[in-house]
Amino acid sequence: DVQLQASGGGLVQPGGSLRLSCAASGFRFSSYAMSWLRQAPGKGLETVADIMNDGRTAYVDSAKGRFTISRDNAKNTVYLQMNSLKPEDTAVYYCNVVTGKGRYWGQGTQVTVSS
């Protein structure tokens, strides 16, 4: 079974940093693009960053220059380094993969940016 285990969220002050991790299992990790999405209170789901199986990345405009998505295929883990965090980054963050068998989600990790 596909499993995605996200971790690393927490409470941070504006301007601070967090690193999210998502450990994956149950599929050939290196073959698939991975994504981080978020859902802020009262808002819809938003794709924050994608990393392709070849390492190419893409970001939502609000994350460009502040967030970095990366992957370690040896550890079957995808990361999201978040710097210069803002209150509007407050959300539940999810990792996500789409394989030939379907779309899978991690359980989400809460990020709260507040002074």
How large is the radius of gyration?
Answer: 13 Å
Strand residue percentage? over 45%
Helix content: under 10%
Overall, the morphology is: globular
Structural class comes to mainly beta
From the structure provided, what is the oligomeric state, counting identical versus distinct chains?
Answer: single chain
What is the average of the pLDDT values? Answer: 96
What is the straight-line distance between the termini?
40 Å
Could you describe the largest sheet, including whether it forms a barrel? 7 strands, mixed
Number of strands: 11
Spans of at least 5 consecutive residues with low confidence: none
Give the H and E element order: EEEEEEEEEEE
Secondary structure tally, helices: 0
Task: Write up this protein.
It is a single chain. The protein has 115 residues and is mostly beta strands. The chain is built from no helices and eleven strands. The strands form two sheets. Strands 2, 4, 5, 6, 9, 10 and 11 form a seven-stranded mixed β-sheet that branches. A hairpin with a 5-residue loop joins strand 5 and strand 6. The radius of gyration is 13 Å and the shape is globular. The chain starts with a strand and ends with a strand. The model has no long low-confidence stretch (mean pLDDT 96).
Please summarize what this structure is.
With 115 residues, this protein is mainly β. The chain is built from no helices and eleven strands. Strands 2, 4, 5, 6, 9, 10 and 11 form a seven-stranded mixed sheet that branches. Strands 1-3-8-7 form a four-stranded antiparallel sheet, with no helix packed on it.
